[in-house]
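To the wet lab folks,

You asked to see what we're planning to order before we commit. Fair enough. Below is the target structure as C-alpha cells, and below that is the sequence we designed to fit it. If anything looks off to you, flag it before the synthesis order goes out.
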C-alpha cells in the first residue's frame, strides 16, 4: 500500500511496500489508558492496511519493546503519552508526540499526521505532552518528582545503614561525640551508608536535570549537585544541601536546553550531546555556583553564626525556637548545619544546653513525617508509607535527612510543618535546660547516656513530632482539596501512585489464568472469571448511581458481596484518591475505577451496567455505562491486578464485546461474556 498524502516517509525503500509505523503509549498511572491507546492505534492501523508495532510503558514495565530493527524500518513514530518518554532512539524518524487521550480518541488522525510530522533530530528531552487524559503536571513538577523518585533509595539505604551502625557499634566518647571504633566492622557499614548519603544530593540534582534536558543534562546536573553540597569548594562550612541540589538541577536542565538551540556546523552535531554540551554546561554551572552563588551563601551563614553567638545570653525559649526552626528548615543543608555547628562548637566551652536544643529538634522532622503517614494513610501512596517507616527508624537515630523526600516532593506543606515542630521541640528543651554532651541528636544520644534531663528531652521530641505530623496532614489535606499535586514518590512521582515498593511474588498465569482456568488446567467454579476474582455475586446488571462518587460507593458495596472487603469506607476513599490523580473513565462508555488498599483481603473485581450512564470525565466525553471496579490488597502478589486491568482494557476496545456486555440479560450471561477476556 502506498503512503497517504504528505511528504514521503523517512524509512526509504520500495514505495509500494506497506507503510510501517511504530507507537509508544504511556499514561502517568501506567494502566488502562496506556493499553486502550495501544489497542485503538493498532486497530486503526490494521483497518488502513498499515503495519504497526506498539510499545506500552505501563506500571508492569515496558511491553512489546521496540528494538533497533523496528526503528530502522519505521516510516514514523507516534508517541501518545502523558509522561516522559525518551525520544533519542527515534533520531532521524518522523515523530509525532501527543497526549495519551489522543491515541484513544483520534487514532486515525494520528496515523495521517505522523507521515508529515517533523523529523526528530536526536538529543531532545524526554517528552510529556501538555494535552492528554488526566490531570497534567507542569514540566517543573515532573522534573522535581523525577529527581525525588531516584533520590529516595539513596536516602533510605544510606540512612538505615548509618542508623544500624550507630545502634550496634556506636558509643559515647569521653572526649566528645558519638563514635564507632575505626577498625570495627560497624565502621565499614557506616562508611557504606555515608556513601549513600553523599550520593543522595547529586542524584536528586542530576535526575531533575535529566527530566528537563535529557541525557546531556545528567552529568552537569550531578556534578552541580555535588558542588552545591560541598561547601569547601566555596569556603563554606556547610554546603547548600538538597535545596541547592534542586537549584542546580533546574539550572543544569534549562542550560542544556538553551545550548541545544545554538546552531553549530554539521560536523560538530554528532558530538554535541556526548562531549560539547556536557563539558560546556558542567563547567559553566560549576563556576557559576562557586563564584556567583556559593560565596554569598558562605557569607550569609558566617554572619548567621555570629548572630547566633550573640544570642546565648537571651531567652532560652527564644534561642531554642530559633535553633529548632533552623535545624528543621533544610535537614542537613546550610541552615541546619549552621545551627548544628554552633551548638557543637559550644560543647567545648562547657555550654551543653545549646546542643541540647539542637539534639531535641534533629529527630522531629523524620519522626513527624513518618508519624503523619501512619495518622492519615489515605493521604499517602504505598511508596510514601514505606518511606515513612524508614523515616521513623532514621529519626530514632538522629538522621534528619529521612524527611528530605517528603520536603522535596512538597516543600510548601512539609517544610513549614517541620519548622513548627522543630521550634516547639527546641523551645521546650531550652526552657527545661536539656543538655547534650555530644555533637549528635535523636533518641539514641539519650539512650547512650549523653543527655541530661532525659525525661524532658523525650517530652520535647514527642510533642515536636506530633506537632509536625498534625500540621503536615492538615496542610496536605487542604492542598489536596484545592487540587494541589499529591505527594510523590516516584515518582512521583511517582505514584495511581507510582507502585515503587509494590508487593512481590509470582505474576499471574497469562491468558489461561485470566480466563478462569487454574494452574492445573481445570476450569474454575461456575460463575467465576478473571482468575476467580469476579463472580456472579460481584456483578449487577443495573447501576443505580447517577454520579461518579455515588457509583464508586455502590461498586464498593457490590465488591463487599464477594466477602473480601474488610473496610468499605476505606475502599471508597482509596478509589476516590485514585480518581483525583486522573480519571479512570476510558471513553467508549467505559470506566474502570481501581484501588490498591488493605481495605480488601484479596483481589476482587466487580462489574455493573448503567442504563443512563454516569459522567466520568472520560477523554471522549461519553458517560460510563460499563463500570468495572478492581481492588487488591497492598501485599497482593506480583502485578496480577495490573495484568487483569491491561487485558480487560484491551478487550473492551472490541465494539462487539461491549455490545454483548450491554445486551446480556442477567448476571450469569454477563459472566459468560467476560469469559472471553484473555
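Sequence we intend to order:
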Amino acid at each position: 500500500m502506498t503512503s497517504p498524502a504528505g511528504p514521503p516517509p523517512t524509512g526509504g525503500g520500495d514505495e509500494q511496500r506497506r507503510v510501517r509505523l511504530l507507537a509508544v503509549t504511556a499514561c502517568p498511572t501506567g494502566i488502562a489508558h496506556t493499553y486502550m491507546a495501544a489497542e485503538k492505534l493498532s486497530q486503526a492501523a490494521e483497518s488502513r492496511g498499515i503495519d504497526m508495532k506498539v510499545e506500552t510503558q505501563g506500571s508492569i514495565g515496558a511491553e512489546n519493546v521496540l528494538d533497533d530493527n523496528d526503528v530502522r524500518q519505521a516510516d514514523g513514530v507516534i508517541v501518545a503519552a502523558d509522561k516522559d518518554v525518551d525520544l533519542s532512539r527515534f533520531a532521524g524518524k518522523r515523530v509525532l508526540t501527543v497526549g495519551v487521550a489522543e491515541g484513544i480518541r483520534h487514532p486515525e488522525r494520528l496515523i495521517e499526521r505522523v507521515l508529515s510530522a517533523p523529523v526528530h533530530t536526536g538529543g531532545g528531552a524526554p517528552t510529556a505532552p501538555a494535552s492528554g487524559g488526566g490531570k497534567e503536571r507542569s514540566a517543573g513538577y515532573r522534573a522535581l518528582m523525577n529527581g525525588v523518585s531516584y533520590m529516595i533509595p539513596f536516602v533510605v539505604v544510606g540512612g538505615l545503614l548509618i542508623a544500624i551502625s550507630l545502634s550496634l557499634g556506636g558509643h559515647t566518647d569521653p572526649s566528645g561525640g558519638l563514635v564507632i571504633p575505626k577498625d570495627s566492622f560497624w565502621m565499614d557499614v557506616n562508611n557504606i551508608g555515608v556513601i549513600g548519603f553523599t550520593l543522595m544530593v547529586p542524584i536528586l540534582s542530576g535526575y531533575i536535570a535529566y527530566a528537563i534536558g535529557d541525557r546531556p543534562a545528567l552529568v552537569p546536573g550531578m556534578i552541580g549537585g555535588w558542588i552545591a553540597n560541598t561547601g569547601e569548594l566555596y569556603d563554606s562550612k556547610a554546603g547548600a544541601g538538597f535545596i541547592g541540589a534542586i537549584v542546580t538541577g533546574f539550572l543544569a536542565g534549562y542550560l542544556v536546553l538553551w545550548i541545544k538551540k545554538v546552531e553549530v556546523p554539521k560536523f560538530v552535531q554528532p558530538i554535541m550531546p556526548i562531549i560539547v554540551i556536557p563539558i560546556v554546561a558542567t563547567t559553566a554551572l560549576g563556576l557559576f555556583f562557586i563564584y556567583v552563588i556559593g560565596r554569598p551563601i558562605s557569607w550569609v551563614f558566617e554572619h548567621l553564626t555570629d548572630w547566633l553567638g550573640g544570642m546565648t545570653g537571651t531567652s532560652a525559649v527564644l534561642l531554642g525556637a530559633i535553633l529548632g526552626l533552623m535545624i528543621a528548615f533544610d535537614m542537613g543543608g546550610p541552615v541546619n548545619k549552621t545551627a548544628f555547628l554552633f551548638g557543637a562548637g559550644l560543647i567545648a566551652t562547657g555550654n551543653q544546653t545549646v546542643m541540647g536544643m539542637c539534639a531535641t529538634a534533629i529527630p522531629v522532622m523524620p519522626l513527624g513525617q513518618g508519624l503523619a503517614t501512619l495518622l492519615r494513610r489515605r493521604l499517602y501512596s504505598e511508596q510514601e508509607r514505606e518511606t515513612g517507616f524508614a523515616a521513623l527508624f532514621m529519626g530514632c537515630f538522629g538522621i534528619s535527612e529521612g524527611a528530605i523526600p517528603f520536603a522535596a516532593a512538597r516543600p510548601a506543606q512539609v517544610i513549614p510543618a517541620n519548622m513548627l515542630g522543630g521550634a516547639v521541640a527546641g523551645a521546650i528543651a531550652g526552657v527545661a535546660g536539656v543538655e547534650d554532651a555530644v555533637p549528635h541528636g535523636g533518641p539514641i544520644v539519650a539512650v547512650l547516656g549523653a543527655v541530661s534531663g532525659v525525661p524532658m528531652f523525650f517530652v520535647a521530641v514527642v510533642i515536636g513530632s506530633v506537632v509536625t505530623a498534625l500540621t503536615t496532614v492538615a496542610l496536605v489535606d487542604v492542598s489536596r482539596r484545592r487540587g494541589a499535586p499529591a505527594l510523590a514518590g516516584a515518582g512521583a512521582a511517582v505514584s495511581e501512585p507510582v507502585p515503587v515498593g509494590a508487593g512481590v511474588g509470582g505474576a499471574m498465569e497469562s491468558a489461561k489464568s485470566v480466563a478462569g482456568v487454574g494452574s492445573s488446567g481445570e476450569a474454575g467454579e461456575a460463575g467465576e472469571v478473571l482468575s476467580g476474582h469476579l463472580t456472579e455475586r460481584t456483578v449487577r446488571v443495573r447501576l443505580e448511581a447517577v454520579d461518579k462518587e455515588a457509583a464508586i460507593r455502590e461498586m464498593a458495596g457490590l465488591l463487599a458481596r464477594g466477602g473480601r472487603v474488610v473496610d468499605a469506607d476505606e475502599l471508597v476513599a482509596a478509589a476516590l484518591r485514585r480518581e483525583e490523580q486522573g480519571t479512570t473513565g476510558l471513553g467508549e462508555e467505559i470506566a474502570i475505577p481501581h484501588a490498591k488498599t488493605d481495605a480488601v483481603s484479596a483481589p476482587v473485581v466487580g462489574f455493573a451496567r448503567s442504563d443512563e450512564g454516569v459522567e466520568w470525565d472520560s477523554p471522549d466525553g461519553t458517560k460510563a455505562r460499563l463500570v468495572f471496579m478492581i481492588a487488591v490488597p497492598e501485599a497482593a502478589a506480583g502485578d496480577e491486578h495490573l495484568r487483569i486491568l491491561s487485558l480487560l482494557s484491551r478487550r473492551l476496545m472490541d465494539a462487539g464485546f461491549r455490545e454483548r456486555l450491554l445486551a446480556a440479560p442477567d448476571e450469569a450471561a454477563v459472566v459468560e461474556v467476560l469469559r472471553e477476556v484473555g
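Structural context that might help your review: The radius of gyration is 28 Å. Confidence is low (pLDDT under 50) at residues 1-15, 124-137, 483-526.

Thanks,
Computational group
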